Every structure is written in C-alpha cells, then in structure tokens.
Amino acid sequence: MPTPVTIIGAGLGGxxxxxxxxxxxxxxxxxxxxxxxxxxxxxxxxxxxDYNGQRALEAAGLTDELRGLVxxxxxxxxxxxxxxxxxxxxxxxxxxGRPEVQRADLRQLLLDSLPAGTVHWxxxxxxxxxxDGGGHEVTFADGTTIAASLxxxxxxxxxRVRPLLSGATPEYAGTTFVETYLYNADTRxxxxxxxxxxxxxxxxxxxxxxxxxxxSGDTLHAYVALTEPQDWFAAIDFADAAAATARIAxxxxxxxxxxxxxxxxxxxxxxxxxxxxxxxxxxxxxxPGVTVLGDAAHLSVPNGEGANLAMQDGAExxxxxxxxxxxxxxxLTAYEQALFPRSAAASAAAxxxxxxTPTLEDAKNFFGRDEQTA
Length: 374
Description:
Blueprint: E1 5-8, H1 12-23, E2 28-31, E3 45-47, H2 53-59, H3 63-67, E4 77-80, E5 86-90, E6 100-102, H4 103-112, E7 119-120, E8 125-130, E9 136-140, E10 145-148, E11 151-153, E12 171-182, H5 185-188, H6 190-196, E13 200-205, E14 208-215, E15 219-227, H7 230-234, H8 241-250, H9 257-264, E16 271-277, E17 290-292, H10 295-298, H11 306-323, H12 328-355, H13 360-367
Parallel strand pairs: 1-2, 1-11, 2-7, 4-13, 11-17
Antiparallel strand pairs: 3-6, 4-5, 8-9, 9-10, 12-15, 12-16, 13-14, 14-15
Helix pairs in contact: 1-4, 1-11, 2-11, 6-9, 11-12
C-alpha cells in the first residue's frame, strides 16, 4: 500500500491533490479548519485557464464535470474609463481559453469526487512539529493529535505547515480589495448591470480600480481596489457599513455613477480583503516527509492565477507521488524542482503588474484576450 498522505486544508489545491491521489489509488486524508463545506462563502467567479487549471482538472479526471459548471457568456469583458466610456469590449463566443465557474461549485465538485470520509471537518491546526523518529505530529485546536508520515500544507497564506520548511512570513502588499455584492442587478441596479455587461468589467486608474463580474443568479460581485497603507484602512470603521461605504465611495468622486454604484448600492456590507505576499522566489531546503502548495508556497497579489496555480501544484504533486512509488523523497524533490521556478515567475509577473500604473494594454493582458476595439 502506498504511503498515505495527510493534507492540511480543503481548498482547491488540497482537494485537487487528494483527487489526483485517489485516481492513482494512493490514500489521503484532508483536515480542514472549517466545520462544514458550507461554513462560509467560497468567493466569486474563477476563470479556469487552459494552461494550468484545466490541465490540473484533466489530471483529476474531471474535465467533463468541469464543462457542466461553466457559466456561458461570462468570458465577455468590458474595460471602461473612469467617466464610463467603453475603451475595450469583447463578447464571449465560446472559444476563449478561460471558462468561468463559481468557486463554490468547483470546490463542491472536487469534494464530491472523493471517497466519503476523506475530509475531516472542524480540524483547525494549532501546531505542527517534527518527530524524533521521523514524520510529523499535527496538534489540532481541540488538543487531539495525528502523526503524518507524509504531510502537505495546503493551508493558505497563514500556513501552519510552512514554518517547518521556511521562516518566511507574508507581508502586506500595499493594496486592498473592498468587496461588494449587488443582487437582482438587472432590475434593482440597472445602471451598474449595464456597465458590467454579461461578463467582467475593469475600470483602471492609478491607485484606484474597480473590477466586477456578473455571477450566477443575476448577481454583480465587485472588487474595489485601493493602494493605501494598512493604517489608512484601520481608520475606517467597517463595523459601520454605511459610513465605511461612504468613505470608500469618496475615493471615487468624479467617476461615472454607474461605476460608483458598484460601491454605493451594495446589498452587503463592504468587506476588507488586504493583499499579502511571500518573497518572490520563495523556496526551502528539502525536509523529509513534508511540503506545501498554493498560497502556502507562493502567495502573491491577485492577478487571476492563484487558484489555477494551487490546482496545478496539487495535480503535479499527486502525479509525482504516483510516478515514484515507494520513494516519497524523489517525488517531493521532483515536485519542488518544477514548483520553484514556475512559482517565482508567476509571483514576479504579479508583482510587476501591481507596481505599474495600469494601462489599457495591462487591462487587456489581465483578461488574456486578443484585441478588439469597441
């Protein structure tokens, strides 16, 4: 029997790893801090890229199932000036390489593809330590422990597993999203709905951007991006939704009202999403029996790649373990040798995008579309 794998974190990366291992007959358990699959919102839309995310799901044997999740028409894009002028527009003709799905639906697909009992819910990790005789001991918040001969940290930015490998800690990247939702948009928020169109919207400006997606159920999901230090946001009382909304909206004075409506007409309180990064080129020395993937390995500012890269990590690690039966260290070495240069390049690209004042070409590249002038 192949060595069982203990995975910390039931996000897309950890679940992709578990599924690829299952396809190859390698047993795995996943320990997740959340008490259930529906304990919290799983975020909005994801574009699943043909060069990484889709390949990961192919390795997981879920390509046909992915097609059933795709929201038709959502690859359409619009790039607007701050005055509402359309700078660039392209419809979704079904040929694009980045089909859009709801993150929650994709996570549920992966969960449903695993044997019952694979995921252990409500297992928040308190600490992890290396055992003298080899392997690692994971202590959970409730005081229970498990011993893991092969431990994988798929537990995100604030990973409890990563400190075994690296002393690197995430640092604030200088930008933050303020997240809003507008429901029943075509009837209740028609101006904002018209601005967003059938897919995705970007309105870029120096230090201030508005991104939005049309999700399922006639919902608009907006990410209002601001480049400010953390103490700037700390001075805003986000417990007072109306006051926080008004304060954020002031930063967009003079913008077209159909764009600022994505802030002022939110049907939910604004939610702060600060961005953190690990050092570009983050890597570690090989430590027997443990590795990390996704944000635990290469956290960077959002640029549309994070979830796809996490799934790619999970798939490649699962394939490496299947390709080296009985030799876990060879598998982990092969995985990390491919991971390090790939993740360094992706993090460097994300940092370069974040450091530059966005231009129309930057916005087009963000969406990964061919040029078509409106």
